[in-house]
Amino acid sequence: MSRAIVFSSLLALISLGLTLTYLTTKVPNFAHGAFVAVGAYVTLTAVEIWQTNPYIFLIVAFIVGGLTALTQYIIVFKPLMRKGSTVVGLMITTIAIEFILLAIINIYADYLSRTFKIRSRYFLLSSYDLSIGGQRGLLFIAPVLTACTVILLYLILTKTKFGVAMRAAIESPSLASVVGININMVYAVSWFISGGLGALSGALLPLWFPGNPDMGSRMIVSAFAASIIGGQLSIYGAVLGGFVIGLAELLGTSTLASWFGAGVIPYRPLVPLIAIVITLLVAPKGLMGINWNKLLKSLRKRVSKNSLQARSDVQ
Amino acid sequence: MSNPGSSKLIALLIIGLVIGAGAGYVLGGQPFAGWYSPEEYQTAAAAEIAAAAAAAAVAAEAARTAMIGAGFESPVTSSITGTVKLGGLFCFTGALATFGENEFEAAQLAVTHVNAFLDAAGYSWDLAIEAEDTALGAGGDALEALESLYARGIKLIIGPLASSEVRAIKGYCDQEKILAISQSSTAPDLAIAGDYIYRFCPSDKNGQGPALGRILAISGIKYVIPVTRNDAWGTGLEAAVKLRFESLGGTFLEGILYAETATEFSLEASDLATKVSNAIALYGTDEVAVLHISFEEVTAFFTAAAAYDILDDIKWFGSDGTAQSGAMTENPTVAAFAAAVDYPCTIFAPAKSAKFEMVRQNGQTVLGRDPDSYSYSVYDIVWCYALSICMGDSIDVTDVRDNMLAPGVLTNYFGASGSIDLDANGDRKAGDYFIWEITEADGEYSWTLAGTWILSTDTVMWE
Hints:
The structure holds 2 protein chains of 2 kinds. Chain A is mostly helical. Chain A has helices at 2-25, 32-48, 58-82, 87-116, 138-159, 161-171, 173-178, 183-204, 215-230, 235-260, 270-282, 292-314; strands spanning 131-132, 135-136. Chain A has a two-stranded antiparallel sheet. Chain A starts with a helix and ends with a helix. The model of chain A has no long low-confidence stretch (mean pLDDT 86). Chain B has helices at residues 4-27, 38-56, 60-68, 97-121, 142-151, 163-176, 208-218, 232-247, 266-283, 298-305, 326-330, 332-340, 354-367, 373-392, 397-404, 409-412; strands at 82-90, 125-133, 156-158, 179-182, 197-202, 223-230, 251-252, 256-259, 288-293, 315-317, 345-348, 414-415, 418-419, 427-428, 433-441, 444-454, 459-462. In chain B, the strands form 4 sheets. In chain B, strands 2-1-3-4-5-14 form a 6-stranded parallel β-sheet. In chain B, strands 6, 7, 8, 9 and 10 form a 5-stranded parallel β-sheet that branches. Helices cover 46% and strands 19% of the residues of chain B. Chain B is α/β, with parallel strands linked by helices. At the A-B interface, α1, α3, α4, α9 and α10 of A face α1, α2, α4, β8 and α9 of B.
């Protein structure tokens, strides 16, 4: 259960960043996993080279991840969007960027290994975690960090001028630019935040799961599933989706394994894929896109209709 | 009309490339300002190396000189000129990254020594390695890497490491007549005569399988729960151990087969805890053991397993996939769990000699750790290729292969891993196996040689 909570919390952060870029530029960013790996290597550097606690370097990881995403936006996306590139074209570009970032991270991992003689692949930093009440610190810190991030984002988006401008730009970029909102600035900041959130999650992942240059790429399917389940146009849905997918992957597979044997465990990666299919078929706008009031009303109507029918049958 | 925006972009790209290249050149091997210098990290290692060299009473330079020769009175003549390239399929990233790094450094050391020998002997060619990353378990493709080497005209290959990778390239090698010598592929089903794959390590069917089966029996274990990596090597080794163990009266219980791409094992650990609990209830703790056949994903598995108290109530056994793994001793949680369950791991035992010590010291100098047993085989693979080329004055694959096999180079060659005697399938004949365990001393965890399984007597000599 503890691993499920940690995994879900960190997955929620990743999918939150992914949804943010989709909200603004309407492009699913396949390079988002690389930001996760960037965060992990910031933590590795801090812990092994500077011998500091990994939690102190979270802000550095956020900034480095944010700058990486911002660079991607400024150098690649902005010019391509200005030239009128299609969504499909931009999506394919993100795949190319993912390869480039993965190569850069691998080069950095080689540099760490050769120069500082530290393990830079399949590294596990669990021994650097804090202990809180006899339990590993990340068990408490991960969900708290996710909650704080959501609250902070809510405050920024609803209580600040910039946040309101961002929401306006998301709703209608053309109208927002007419009223004087700098759309490019809004997009740039949202990409920065997106990359930062990915890196934030990546900075904590090696405290529980092995770190590797491709660790983010391995989680990208789960992140997309979380984003789709929650609702691709809702950042709160992304968090909800993260917990749904994270718990389903770990607890759901564990339950199935207890019923059908350990042979189902290797099929764990199917869980997010099946979730994507079901969501797109049943509720394409995700959980946050469902009109719950209407659904509850129709369910109540059906229940009362059935009970009336049952009473009349008895009479 | 030129677009000022795209001109700026191109200019920025060029500037970025120039800065990046310059930074890479300047920083190559240099830490960023304000960080601890590499020397500070290497000072302690250098002291240990010096102490080890003194203790072993081996002068690396003397050994090198003795091996390569002091020179020839009259230079040999050879029709080969230029650089002869060997292809290296190493796992630099992925589940065997530590082993890949170790073995690449051993190969580089061999190339240095070979070239010194060739120069002293008057040959007008030299040797070089072109390495490709097979990235086992990290999205890599050994066959693709091999095709890339073959496209450059390279047909003499070192590696690959893993049996699954050997299986992937075998058909292509046989078809295109590419000679590949693997230092560490041990899967029994790849012991095939007449193909273009040779292995300078014993097959698990004849070596590690019987060794582990005997070690389990000697340790008083009667019931084994296998936890196996689902690839050619893992399943082959499990089958070999099971065959031997059951012939000695033991029983294999239902185990766990996990995907080779898995990196998170909470589900497997939970399931294993249930199985172990049931087994202990039936048979007691002394007669039940876990046989864990894994690569370096063992760190993630042990981290998950450490959460279950019942899992350290019984003994665990490992294999060459984890023996001497630096990843385990560097993580206190993993090391503590391994020490608690003993976790004896077998690995092929190279014969110790001055050449062995030279390769070991090189590993310490370059990477700060002792290389794994298969690094010594890599060193020998490079030398065997070079000597075979010299013998036949030819880089043709068939000539190199024929000159290498008995009564060729291998007949008299004694290398860093000892004598290399191949069986009819082109695999090294079985030998002794070291048994390594993680032990704790003064709060530090390290691999300690616990014993050796002796092939000739099928017994274990404990340290």
